[in-house]
Design goal:
Number of helices: 18
Strand content: under 5%
Strand order of the largest sheet: 1-2
Distance between the termini: 19 Å
Structural class: mainly alpha
């Protein structure tokens, strides 16, 4: 059986960065529906977060970075030495909430006057469901940009595609980290050049494993460096300064990115900027986990660990909840388009309700679906592994 992850292998900044990134992605999606200006005043100082929220989708790449970091860190700490153990652990973690989401969307579609109509026809529905069940829905236009299911699930497809190759990449990274890192970055760069130079439809290609492989590689390299440095002393102050610098750098990077105009230009900038932006996350993740203990406590504490624990389901449900609330006139509004009309009271109430409902949904799905199903799935896996071990010992 794989060894449990030791507390010493836990990187404190990962919890905070995960929560912060998903919160900002959610804020971006809520802002798309509400148009509430992300400006406010603190002690007389005006704070303008528009440049951050305007390109809030970029924080998805921090989630990809963290995935590569946590998976590699777990492997280096003694877990996932076998591909079978890795796939079992990932299936138990991902599938319950994912399949529950698909079932809910199919149920909602049947309540909307016919499942086939919701999906645009029987054939489209079959393709959509099959692609989502095989985690290939980000590869086809009709199941990615025109899906009748949860559009936010494209990230799960990229994650599972990465899981398919991680046992090999993890083993290579463990033996030859820098050569493997350079190889992953090279593959990702070639994929981006192919999209850019061949004038491919960037909408279909920017959110694929090939173009994101360098972000995963940055996370895996951060795990290797963290494992080698975590026992070192006198890293507190330099790490704290670099952590703060990475936050400032990320802000100015996103501010400049928010000035890019035109959908195609924005997507190309997003594709090439993903790796550069993940470097700031790389520094924050690494240095924030090597700094002073009191800072690490701010990053990883019962609150951030709880929020990180429900973040998967928060991410899955926050966008559809925001869309459903608006369509159902919750909170109620008289204008046809309250966001365009600038109904500030509605905007504020709507934003607050989106956050509260998404948190409630994340909590309930995590503790009523994900964790109970994980316990049920773990039992047959344990029995299967124990029987195979007995046969091996007998042989």
């Amino acid at each position: 059986m794989p060894k449990p992850e030791s507390t010493s292998s836990r990187a404190a900044a990962a919890d905070f960065l995960r929560v912060l990134s998903i919160a900002l992605v959610a804020w971006y999606h809520f802002w798309q529906q509400s148009w509430l200006n992300p400006n406010f005043s603190v002690f007389g100082f005006e704070i303008d977060l528009y440049p951050i929220i305007r390109v809030g989708y970029m924080f998805v790449y921090n989630m990809i970075l963290i995935s590569g970091f946590v998976l590699m860190l777990s492997r280096l700490s003694g877990r996932y030495k076998s591909a079978r153990a890795f796939y079992k652990a990932r299936a138990v973690r991902i599938l319950p909430s994912y399949l529950f989401c698909l079932i809910v969307f199919l149920f909602v579609s049947s309540m909307k006057g016919g499942t086939y109509d919701w999906f645009g026809g029987r054939e489209h529905m079959r393709q959509d469901i099959l692609a989502h069940l095989t985690f290939t829905h980000n590869l086809f236009p009709q199941t990615y940009t025109n899906t009748g299911l949860n559009a936010a699930l494209w990230t799960v497809a990229v994650e599972v595609q990465f899981y398919a190759v991680f046992p090999l990449l993890g083993r290579l990274f463990e033996k030859r980290p820098f050569k493997t890192y350079l190889g992953m970055v090279l593959v990702s760069t070639l994929c981006k050049l192919y999209v850019h130079c061949c004038e491919m439809n960037s909408l279909m290609f920017i959110n694929r494993l090939g173009t994101m492989l360098d972000v995963f590689a940055n996370g895996m390299l951060a795990a290797v460096i963290y494992t080698r440095l975590k026992a070192k002393r006198r890293l507190g102050l330099p790490s704290l300064l670099l952590t703060l610098a990475s936050g400032a750098g990320a802000y100015f990077f996103l501010r400049d990115l928010s000035y890019v105009s035109g959908e195609e230009a924005q997507r190309i900038a997003q594709m090439w900027g993903a790796s550069a932006f993940s470097i700031f996350g790389f520094v924050f993740l690494l240095c924030g986990s090597l700094t002073f203990r009191f800072v690490k406590t701010l990053f990883s504490n019962p609150v951030t660990r709880f929020l990180a624990g429900i973040s998967y389901n928060f991410y899955i449900w926050h966008q559809p909840i925001s869309v459903w609330l608006k369509k159902l006139h919750i909170p109620d509004y008289a204008e046809e388009y309250p966001n365009v009309a600038g109904n500030v009271e509605w905007q504020k109430s709507y934003m607050l309700l989106c956050v509260v409902c998404a948190l409630i949904a994340a909590f309930r799905v995590t503790y009523l679906v994900e964790k109970p199903c994980a316990r049920l799935l773990n039992k047959p896996f344990k029995e299967l592994f124990s029987r195979k071990k007995e046969k091996k010992d007998a042989a």
